Hints:
Blueprint: H1 3-29, H2 56-66, H3 68-98, H4 105-150, H5 154-159, H6 162-204, H7 209-237
GO molecular function, one term: ABC-type transporter activity
Protein name: ABC transporter transmembrane region containing protein, putative
Region (Disordered): 1-49
Amino acid sequence: MTLATKEHEEDKEETEEEQTDTVEKKEKEKPSAKETKPGTDTLMTKEEKASGGVPWSTYMDYFRFCGGTAASLVVAGVFAATEVLTVSSTVWLSMWATRRFGLSDATYLVVYVILVLLGCASSPTRFSVGFTFMRHGCVSLHKTVLRGVGVGTMELFDTTPLGRIMNRFSRDIDVADNNLQQSFIQFMNCMLSILSSILITVVSQRIVLFILLPCGYFYYRLLVFYNSANREIRRTGSVAKSPLDFPPR
């Protein structure tokens, strides 16, 4: 065998070794079939965490599930009317003490008893209307999510962990069905109570308004600071429970 032939064979072996190393390197860098899908790097969708405040569109979508604008206005009107009935007995009692209308004690007493009875009936009425309103929203939301999962393609189940789907129908629905209803009713009660107290106080003692304004601003700044921290903590703890993304059919 000549020297030229030996050199040619050695060069050929080196070229084959380089090609083999290149192929092995590409195979190592290439994701496995279990981790990839067409058009993406990973099979499972990444868990995302929202930032900033909750957009108003989210609240509007939820109230739409609860019955829409008309139902929301009816519930707000019922809460406002029941709050008026609740504080009316106290206002009437103050008028009775000052003899503002010059009526007899019997008349004042009859009106006061009627207002007290109406105030007692307003509380269960408020809770009943609020729970019915929120219950309808929870049922509609559950039906929508269930319908979306039922008609979902295989891509939905390939890209969404089963634990995330189970959380939508267990923990999240439980929160919407129980905690959210109580929070909504307590929020409405608290806000209406604060507004009625401020209104009565300002009407009777207008100078209190100059004290309430700086106190309200300080409370608002403290509320914004607390909500920002509390919201991020809750979101960080619920990263694994991100919303379902239904692929287009």
